[in-house]
Amino acid sequence: MANFSNPYVNGSIAHRFRERRFRFFESLMDSVPKPCRILDVGGTEAFWRSHWGDVKKEVEVLLLNFQEVPTSCSYVKSIAGDATNLSQYEDRSFDLVHSNSVIEHVETKENQAKMAAEMLRVGERIFVQTPNKYFPIEPHYGMAQELVKMSF
């Protein structure tokens, strides 16, 4: 079952869903002026590396998580922070704010609203994916229906 739901295993259903969603994301990225800065709320270097490899020209990705983590990709950096309070950034500081299956983990609807408001404030565009709780298989087992909100 682990291979079925693991998005990092080639051929798994989760991998196919993630690849399809990333291709859609990249088609939208074509309209974003380069160079660009992406804030990835709750993101991982492995996610970006699995799609873009070690080098992505004209893109800087800043991972925001509770703790800073070491990174090795030339275009990925990491910082510690709180998605519900991005006060260290001015309005429209990022060309894009990206978040993949994170907003459902901030515990309360109030925190979800704060996170969404902060992402909208600091980003020119946002790309948010979240599992659909009504999908017939539990979302975190790799068959989540995506809900994408964009302002491209």
SSE diagram, text form:
Blueprint: H1 2-5, H2 13-29, E1 36-41, H3 45-52, E2 59-65, E3 76-80, E4 96-100, H4 109-122, E5 126-129, E6 149-150
Parallel strand pairs: 1-2, 1-4, 2-3, 4-5
Antiparallel strand pairs: 5-6
Walk me through what this model shows.
This protein is of the alpha/beta class and 152 residues long. The chain has a single domain (2-150), classed as Vaccinia Virus protein VP39 (Rossmann fold, 3-Layer(aba) Sandwich). Helix content is 28%, strand content 19%. The protein contains four helices and six strands. A six-stranded mixed beta sheet has the order 3-2-1-4-5-6, with helices on one face. Strand 1, helix 3 (45-52) and strand 2 form a beta-alpha-beta unit. The radius of gyration is 15 Å and the shape is globular. The model is unreliable at 138-152 (pLDDT under 50).
Could you name the key traits of this structure?
globular; 152 residues; 19% strand; alpha/beta; single chain
